Amino acid sequence: MFGKILIANRGEIALRIQRACRELGIATVAVHSTADSEAMHVRLADESVCIGPPAAKDSYLNIPAILSAASITGAEAIHPGYGFLSENARFAEMVEDHGMTFIGPSSSHISMMGDKIAAKEAMRTLGVPLVPGSDGAVPDLQTAEQVAGKIGYPVLIKAAAGGGGRGMKVARQAADLEEAFQTARAEARAAFGNDAVYIEKYLDRPRHIELQVLADNHGDVVHFGERDCSLQRRHQKLLEEAGSPAISPEERDRLGETATAALRKLGYRNAGTLEFLYQDGQFAFIEMNTRLQVEHPVTEMVCGIDLVREQIRLASGAHLGYGQRDITFTGHAIECRITAEDPRTFSPTPGRVTAYHAPGGLGVRVDSALYAGYFVPPYYDSMVAKLIVHAPTRQDAINRLRRALDEFAVVGIQTTIPLHQRIVDDPQFQSGEYTIHWLENFVAGL
Q1: Of 291, 337, 365, 400, which one is the catalytic site residue?
Q2: Most exposed: 25, 108, 115, 279, by fewest CB within 10 Å?
Q3: Each residue of 31-82: pLDDT tens digit?
């Protein structure tokens, strides 16, 4: 096991990793920008190193500074969390080149899955079902017209690199294709420095289902069930559930067997999440995230497994030590992402937190680095907390979530807590009969 780990991240995820390390008896090194000098993850770490000014490109994305911090503090491994450098294949490779362990997949698998075209082709060869679409990148409008005509409108043009909804446009009919194609390429070029796009059939009422997996360095792979991440605004997740109200245990088993068999053949290691669209009883692979997910706590709650602890353990060379039959699913869990944003306009609301009270009680978990007096900086992602509840049934979880949201107090800045309260009270959410398009319409009606 490692003696010291550097955490190349900030906020609640840095604090989450620290907690796992503390329970394993591992010392931690926090890196931080000048804007985060008073952050909770810095206060609680065994050591801290300032790596640059507020801008992420000069600090949390500054690879030489992070590697230097790891070297001078004697860290044996680096945990990237999510976001920032977590899916940067070059960073993973450089960590290994400097004699340290990258807590995550191999750089080759990060690179493969970071290119959505390469990822889809890999999954196709491994027998994982895909959304009908182009075979690789679409080089020009003429080819795009041929592909769209073959699979039928509406179609979705997507950037091969990146994510978060950038470089993604819908063409509902032939007359829309040229503008959608050119706009998607331009956005992809601006956001990712790569204008390659591909085309998929646009599904009109799918759910976004993802499957959590872990793999050791010895060929063993298991899954921890599905999460339903269909509640999205502009392709950004707001609320997640485990398990999905739309998926049966038999469908979960079928999906899990297909996915773990594919990753076993691929030689994958550490944590990963396969994302699918689900409609009319069929799953279709869309991408794989080669890192820990923001929504990992709902899986932990229903499985009783500390996924961060497992990441660290497996990165140290340990065997999984358990098989698929040893993993059980108990109850239902829901997570709300609480952001420092206006709950109606979604404009960022950085500022000083003058008072803070987290909800508690049986089955309630809050992952947050907030505290009274903390200044939420304007330079980074606006998520400031995750509220997670677990209960025996989905209805019990909804009731518990409603109660916890009512208790949650963040004073001094606006947050999206009121939006989550409205979502939880909506009959369609309560019924579980929603798709990835539902939340956009819900928000528009507020």
Answers
A1: 291
A2: 25
A3: 999 999 999 999 999 999 999 999 999 999 999 999 999 999 999 999 999 9
pTM of the model: 0.93
Structural domains of the chain, with CATH: 4-102 (3.40.50.20), 132-201 (3.30.1490.20), 207-444 (3.30.470.20)
291 is catalytic: yes
Give residue 4's Cα distance to chain centre: 25
